[in-house]
Design brief:
Length: 368
């Protein structure tokens, strides 16, 4: 048992309470102890992505038991294609069979799909039971495990069902991502690096300077960088929990064109983070054409993204289809797109008045 204060990345403050986000190597061994520290009682229902079975799941279970929790485990094959109500139903039936009560705790262990789906089950089971996230993909660590958004897909669209249900604790063990496939890893870095570009030039410098070491997950620096990236997400969620203000929207940097690329290429062709990286290049091209940034920063962004194994172009996609898809992105209201654009390294802002010909020019560059 270790004191986790040196691993504390963020304290997220929300209307549903405050919670700690812990990031470090081996921290999963303290799962039970950490739950006890925040006063959670009842039994622990650990629901894990099947890829984490058996060893990491067992290790988490043992940690819960060491904290004195009676623990039940369900491992499920959870992926984007079954992130739906049928899978949630399997979770409900399991909870019902074991008579899970209001005071019990659901622990979600896996990537963002698992976190969203299990979080949704926890939000709705008995009108809401405590959920704790143990994200195991880099994307889930630096992004989806923080902020309380949960949800599942229906045939009409992605994430159309959901609830805000904030976790009571987020425990991120960097050891978990060592088994993550390289493309998934790169996709996670895209979101982490994005945090540097929009809000933290020091973090950006670190990502730039130490890319090979980061990619290899060598030494303490990658853990520090993940912790800082998590802190940025935590600060934004604390400032703008329901995305009604001007803060949380900045996280959508690269996402307007990124979502359009996912949509037009067919979901699954590009991983979300890959599409975001290309979207960031399009957004940088827009900012450059508007005179907000110089070409040096655009080049810098390109080389950083490449250093993390990310694509910076999506050759062959149809420009008209992309422009249309970007207009129907849910972040656009009343027909005008709210673009998140850089003003400098670590500085982002939003603009609604971007002429379509400028968008076209910048998007065309990433399609060539
Ligand atoms: N709630 C939010 O705020 C929010 C934000 C962004 C994205 N999301 C959601 O997150 C989901 C994407 O999350 P993701 O990128 O983590 O995808 P994912 O959960 O599908 O995980 C990616 C892949 O990696 C595997 N995996 C996970 N951890 C692993 C590990 N440690 N070792 C080996 N393999 C591992 C998974 O089985 C999967 O095949 C989407 O459904 C998206 O809607 C939610
Ligand atoms: Zn994203």
């Amino acid at each position: 048992m270790t004191d986790q204060d040196q691993n504390l990345a963020a304290v997220v403050n929300t209307t549903q309470g405050s919670y700690r986000v812990i990031v470090g190597r081996g921290v999963v061994d303290d799962l039970g102890h950490e739950l006890k520290k925040i006063g959670l009682q009842g039994r622990a229902f650990l629901i894990a992505d099947y890829v984490m079975f058996p060893n990491p799941v067992r290790r988490a279970q043992e940690a819960l038991e060491r904290g004195g929790y009676e623990t039940h485990v369900l491992s499920l094959e959870i992926s984007e294609s079954n992130k739906n109500l049928e899978t949630v139903q399997i979770v409900y039936e399991w909870l019902a069979d074991l008579r899970a009560e209001r005071r019990d705790i659901v622990v979600a262990m896996g990537g963002g799909v698992t976190g969203d789906l299990v979080g949704f089950a926890a939000a709705t089971w008995l009108r809401g039971v405590a959920v704790v996230h143990v994200p195991t993909s880099l994307a889930a660590m630096v992004d989806s495990s923080i902020g309380g958004k949960t949800g599942v897909n229906i045939p009409k669209g992605k994430n159309l069902l959901g609830a805000f249900h904030q976790p009571r604790l987020v425990l991120q063990d960097v050891g978990h991502i060592e088994t993550l496939p390289p493309r998934e890893m790169a996709a996670g870095w895209a979101e982490a690096v994005k945090h540097g570009f929009i809000l933290d030039s020091q973090l950006l410098d670190m990502f730039e300077r130490l890319a090979p070491q980061m990619v290899a997950l060598e030494g303490d620096e990658p853990v520090d960088a993940i912790r800082r990236s998590v802190a940025i997400k935590g600060e934004i969620v604390s400032a703008d929990e329901f995305e009604t203000g001007d803060d949380r929207v900045l996280l959508n940097y690269g996402h307007t064109i990124g979502h359009a690329i996912e949509n037009v290429s067919g979901y699954g062709t590009y991983l979300h983070g890959e599409a975001v990286a290309i979207g960031m290049m399009a957004a940088a091209g827009i900012a450059e054409r508007l005179g907000m940034i110089d070409s040096e920063l655009v080049d810098r962004q390109r080389s950083v993204l490449k250093a993390y194994g990310l694509p910076v172009k999506a050759p062959g996609l149809d420009i008209d289809a992309l422009i249309d898809a970007s207009k129907s992105d849910k972040k656009s209201r009343g027909g005008t797109i709210r673009w998140v654009l850089l003003e400098g390294p670590g500085m982002a802002t939003t603009r609604r008045d971007v002429p379509e010909d400028i968008v076209r020019e910048a998007v065309q560059v990433v399609l060539d």
